[in-house]
Write a structure and sequence with these properties.
57% of the residues lie in helices and 16% in strands. The chain is of the alpha+beta class and 833 residues long. The protein has five domains: 1-57 and 243-385, no CATH class; 59-84 and 211-234, no CATH class; 85-207, no CATH class; 406-419 and 436-506 and 690-833, no CATH class; 507-689, no CATH class. The strands form two sheets. Strands 1, 2, 3, 4, 5, 6, 7, 8, 9 and 10 form a ten-stranded mixed sheet that branches. Strands 11, 12, 13, 14, 15, 16, 17, 18 and 19 form a nine-stranded mixed sheet that branches. The chain crosses the membrane at residues 20-39, 250-271, 304-325, 345-370, 391-411, 423-450, 479-501, 708-730, 751-779, 799-819.
């Protein structure tokens, strides 16, 4: 190991607090990248693996569609080839007669088909050899929940009738029973029992099949083309599950951007201080034959070491976050089944590369500045770093702020499909500009106070002048400003996210909601009749979502919402129309018309009056775009409206599965009436308050995650401030000794140090609270570019908390310096003067 490498190692280990600060900031950034990429995959994998575990080898489901006259069918009713295995069933829902909180999905099938689920083990059985009559197979968990034993009888309520069944077998909680809970479970019975309920001969409502996974999409497409009355679809659609976890991913990537800004600034500032500290040592190296290039490479090695260590630790932390997230979101956690965590090792590679890039690139500018140092002065140790702030940086910063503002206004006026394309550069330019102007801004703000205190209080004058002129103290203000801006942005994002996720239902006019959780035509018809009769004297709004694809491209998902435009007008106060009344009126009179959402219009470059082709079950339907509406965050902006008459004409939709009832009578009475009449049917009944509360609960996890990283941001900033204040004292020992030698007492010296910290915190808070308004404005533009019109609110309620925290932090960070100040040896510091 040569002398430069030994010096590098000793230098890294000597300043442990600074080393930990740099590594910590890199670690957090790396962990956020790995976690943001991996959490979405992990949550998706958990749910997908759960579903795949339930369906085992089966991967496609075949059902009769809306074109079929009868929802029940025989296998001979359709054409299909290359099927490996089948599971045929007729399903019906109901509840336990003596406990209507216990609901079930009863599958009628044959014992031969049931045994195709290899993971299901029969634990106990009684006369199961002949699977006929009113026999039931239940899971071990269901037996415990209902307190049933082999041979026990149970009364089940199904479609208005009660029938007695006998427990003939108890099976393991696997396969079809995998998702059984204490309140909702699966029951297996002979096929004839379910068909008798429907008044049919032995037919099926659904058939699971196993086909080659490699050709599954083409198989589904061919089947749907050949069988117009049937629909084949994936039993487990990974893309659908993945889209539900995208909000967490977006939130964490947003946090990553904030943390990276802080990390870059911390590393940049730290390396400026490293170079300032080591100028005398560099002079020694240069005098012994080393070149500036040797020193540049030495410092680049140091930044590489920080990035290397931070990358490893960040990957470990990211893996821990993914594991914890997988465990918390495990759908089978209550069943005692552990989450299966599948790590994508490419994400760890991306994290490691990011760590190295952030560390090296952030340090590059200070390191390359060494090439501009005068060699003679550095060798003779006569070189001093000037504390003078120049107007040049201030002017550049002002011009950059002006440019960011211009880009903001320019973005909103860009015509075409993607306005606000200038949002991202404007955001980072604005952030950089604020950091650049701080030194001169501090100089300008504090100069009048220096002049005032010169005549009134010498200690305050010294404190104010030191803050005005010291680059180290100005870097503290920069660090405080960046930290506070980051915290304000995070809190603003949290508030806005909460409002976004809960704001949809608040602007919809209804009291009761009813969702039918079945695509069975008989169940849909029965439920529709009951709901319509019960809500005769109320305003009944019907919904039906259809998932289609644009031009047959499965990656271009278009969610179509079927509505009655006449009563939808009074129900919806959320969507943003150009002219609500005329747009919905036009839709009601056009069976080939569609109102496209702004997000879909922008993403796929669709304009008003365009003709588009929507595909459902591989059937092509043509629509004309009547107008465009901003769906904002309803269904994440993918809401496209057609009328029910258009839905029946194009997609054979006869019954809807979502109802929203607005009533002037008793809400509780109507809900109780619906609950009573719909018992035994697979429906969910709730109130508007229930819907809002559900969204608030789902939002808490994301907001809580953001809050954690808000505190992490505070910690990063705190360690940075502490490090800088300690460094400030080390660099100013001689200056403090000179002041003490000419009459500055220990008490005055301590007061001066405390005032410096207090003044720096005040200036940092003023700058950050003011500039955060601009940054939030520019952040809003970024989300507008993403076609997510998020209404960011300034978190005024957080200002007192942040201010107190930063002032207390400044005081605590100064305490070690006060202790060191007490031990300052004036003679030792001045003996060479």
């Amino acid at each position: 190991m040569n002398i430069l490498s030994k010096y590098l190692l000793n230098s890294i280990l000597e300043k442990k607090s600074r080393m930990l600060l740099i590594i910590f900031s890199i670690t957090i950034g790396t962990a956020l990248l790995v976690a943001s990429l991996g959490i979405s995959d992990s949550i998706t994998n958990n749910y997908v693996n759960t579903l795949k575990g339930a369906y085992e080898n089966f991967n496609v489901e075949i059902t009769a569609n809306a074109k079929a006259k009868d929802p029940l069918f025989n296998v001979s009713d359709f054409k299909a080839q290359n099927i490996k295995e089948t599971f045929k069933t007729a399903a019906v829902n109901g509840y336990v007669k003596n406990d209507d909180s216990k609901t079930f999905n009863m599958l009628g099938t044959s014992l031969e088909d049931f045994k195709k689920f290899k993971s299901i083990k029969i634990l106990k059985s009684l006369n199961l050899g002949t699977f006929n009559g009113n026999k039931l197979i239940i899971s071990d968990k269901t037996a415990a929940s209902l307190k049933l034993k082999l041979g026990d009888k149970v009364n089940l309520y199904i479609l208005g009738k009660t029938k007695e069944y006998i427990v003939s077998a108890i099976a393991s909680n696997s396969g079809l029973f995998l998702s059984d809970t204490s309140s909702n479970f699966t029951l297996i019975t002979p096929i004839k029992n379910v068909c008798d309920i429907y008044g049919e001969a032995n037919k099926y409502s659904s058939m699971f099949i196993a086909v080659n996974q490699s050709s599954i999409n083409s198989w589904i497409k061919n089947f749907n083309n050949e069988n117009s009355n049937f629909t084949a679809k994936l039993l487990v659609d990974e893309s659908e599950v993945s889209s539900q976890s995208s909000t967490i991913k977006i939130s964490m990537l947003f946090m990553l951007g904030i943390v990276l800004i802080m990390s870059i600034f911390i590393i940049y500032s730290s390396f400026k201080m490293i170079i300032t500290e080591r100028l005398s040592v560099f002079g020694t190296f240069l005098s012994t034959g080393a070149t500036k290039l040797n020193i540049v490479f030495l410092l680049l090695k140091e930044s590489f070491v920080y990035g290397f260590i931070g990358g490893i630790l960040g990957n470990l932390l990211g893996a821990i976050i993914i594991y914890l997230s997988s465990s918390l979101t495990n759908p089978l956690k209550e069943e005692g089944i552990k989450a299966v965590v599948n790590f994508n090792y490419m994400y760890f590679l991306y994290g490691f590369i990011l760590a190295l890039m952030v560390s090296i690139i952030s340090a590059l500018a200070p390191i390359l500045s060494i090439k501009k140092l005068p060699v003679k002065e550095v060798i003779l140790n006569n070189f001093e770093v000037s504390n003078k702030t120049t107007i040049k940086g201030f002017i550049i910063g002002i011009l950059l702020i002006a440019l960011a503002i211009v880009l903001h206004f320019l973005g909103g006026n860009i015509k075409g499909q993607r306005p606000y394309i200038t949002a991202l550069p404007a955001f980072f330019i604005g952030f950089a500009a604020i950091v650049i102007i701080i030194p001169k801004l501090v100089d300008i703000l504090l100069y009048p106070f220096v002049r005032f205190f010169r005549k009134t209080n010498s200690t305050l004058m010294l404190s104010t002048n030191n803050v005005r002129t010291s680059k180290i103290l100005q870097n503290n203000i920069r660090l405080i400003s960046v930290s506070v801006i980051a915290i304000v942005i995070i809190m603003s994002f949290s508030l806005s996210l909460n409002g976004m996720l809960t704001g949809v239902y608040k602007k919809l006019n209804f009291n009761i909601s009813v969702s039918i959780n079945s695509n069975n035509a008989n169940i849909l018809k029965a439920s529709n009749d009951i709901i319509e009769n019960s809500a005769k004297n109320s305003n009944l709004i019907k919904h039906q979502y259809i998932t289609t694809n644009l031009n047959g491209d499965f990656s271009k998902e278009i969610n179509v919402l079927c509505i009655d435009p006449k009563n939808f007008k009074s129900y919806d106060d959320y969507l943003d129309y150009a002219d609500k009344a005329s747009q919905l009126e036009e839709l009601s009179h056009n069976e080939d018309g569609i109102i496209i959402s702004k997000k879909i219009s922008t993403r796929y470059k669709i304009k008003k009056s365009d003709k588009i082709k929507l595909y459902l079950d591989n059937k092509e339907e043509n629509f004309k775009v009547l107008s465009i509406v901003d769906a904002k965050f309803m269904n994440m902006g993918n809401v496209n409206l057609i009328s029910f008459s258009a839905a029946e004409k194009h997609f054979n939709i006869k019954y809807c599965d979502d109802f929203f009832i607005s009533t002037t009578s008793s809400e509780a009475k109507l809900k109780a009436d619906l609950t009573k009449k719909l018992k035994g049917l697979p429906v969910s009944i709730g109130t508007k308050a229930d819907s809002i509360e559900h969204d608030e609960q789902s939002c808490k996890q994301i907001v809580g995650l953001l809050s954690i990283f808000s505190y992490i941001t505070m910690i990063i900033g705190s360690i940075g401030v502490l490090s800088n204040i300690s460094l400030s004292f080390i660099k100013r020992k001689r200056e403090l000794a000179v002041l003490s030698s000419v009459g500055l007492t220990k008490g005055s010296r301590n007061t001066m140090l405390l005032c410096e910290s207090f003044i720096g915190a005040i200036i940092g808070l003023l700058v950050s609270f003011t500039s955060a308004s601009l940054i939030i404005l520019l952040l809003r533009d970024i989300f507008k570019y993403l076609v997510l019109d998020m209404d960011f609110s300034y978190p005024f309620n957080s200002i007192p908390f942040i201010s107190i925290f930063m002032l207390v932090l400044g005081f605590i960070a100064t305490l070690p310096t006060l202790v060191k100040s007490e031990k300052l040896e004036i003679v030792s510091q001045l003996k060479y003067e």
